[in-house]
Amino acid sequence: MQPIPAGNHIVVGVDGSETSLAAAEWAAAFASKLALPLHLVHSSPAPGPMPEIAMTPDELAERFRAYRSELLTATENAVRRWAPGIETASIADSEPPAVGLLKAARGAAMIVIGATGAGAVERWILGSTALRVVDRAQCPVAVWRGDPAQPSPGDRPIVVGCDGSPLSAGATELAFAWAQLFSVPVVPVRTWTDSAAVGDSVPTAIQVFGPTAMTVDWETIARAEAGVLSTIVAPYRDKFPGVTVEERSRRGSAVRELLRALDEGQMLIVGRKGGGRLRGALLGSTTQNLLHRARGPLVVYRGPDN
């Protein structure tokens, strides 16, 4: 099956942490299903002089090369146990982690990274490497977080944020394609707010009809908003007729409702916009909130034209 979006390999970051190893197993399951090679990438600058260690710079550099080789070999051996049929490649780079991962991901279908690295202090604080990769990647980025004892995709639904935008369309198609691939349901989630639902006519109505104009039939509005979601999802139901769908139209915070749905799902897929020169500072409040707070794998979709 051709991955959506197209790519010729999957990249996973390796840093020796338990989270990194779990992310590699999760990535191996996708590489196996998509029949794509899995590239294991460890990228970090060589350490500088260490006066407290009785080694010459050359000896220190050799020790560091040996460490990277052992780390990648151990991860590759584990991947072969989890998914014996997939093709693997190990890549060691001396660039900063985010730079090395992005370089290895040229032409990739997806990048997978653990939400916390080897030096992380707090489980809920996302590392700078993950943020930089999500911000700059030209393909979907999966930020893996979950139970390291059970990292592989299971039978729970795939959750996707749907708002009708072109980028959301790409994320939605990806969710349906992966739901079909793993034979699991998909849960499209769309939220709406009071002001958006009632519309701009309310102030004028108050002037004409008085306070009674604020009597709002929320049930009717909720049905109308649910209809909007059904319209958004309809083309994907037609394209992927074998996928079970549970639409969720909710009033309130997008972050809150997406996280609630993820509590019952196995991963969440959201789209994100590109940006200009301030892109790194403007990743988007919804995406940033989800990146920091999601309890399970979060896939941030960015299409080739975004």
Automatic annotation (TrEMBL):
<protein>
    <submittedName>
        <fullName>Universal stress protein</fullName>
    </submittedName>
</protein>
<dbReference type="Pfam" id="PF00582">
    <property type="entry name" value="Usp"/>
</dbReference>
<dbReference type="InterPro" id="IPR006016">
    <property type="entry name" value="UspA"/>
</dbReference>
<comment type="similarity">
    <text>Belongs to the universal stress protein A family.</text>
</comment>
<dbReference type="InterPro" id="IPR014729">
    <property type="entry name" value="Rossmann-like_a/b/a_fold"/>
</dbReference>
<feature type="domain" description="UspA">
    <location>
        <begin position="9"/>
        <end position="144"/>
    </location>
</feature>
<feature type="domain" description="UspA">
    <location>
        <begin position="156"/>
        <end position="302"/>
    </location>
</feature>
<dbReference type="InterPro" id="IPR006015">
    <property type="entry name" value="Universal_stress_UspA"/>
</dbReference>
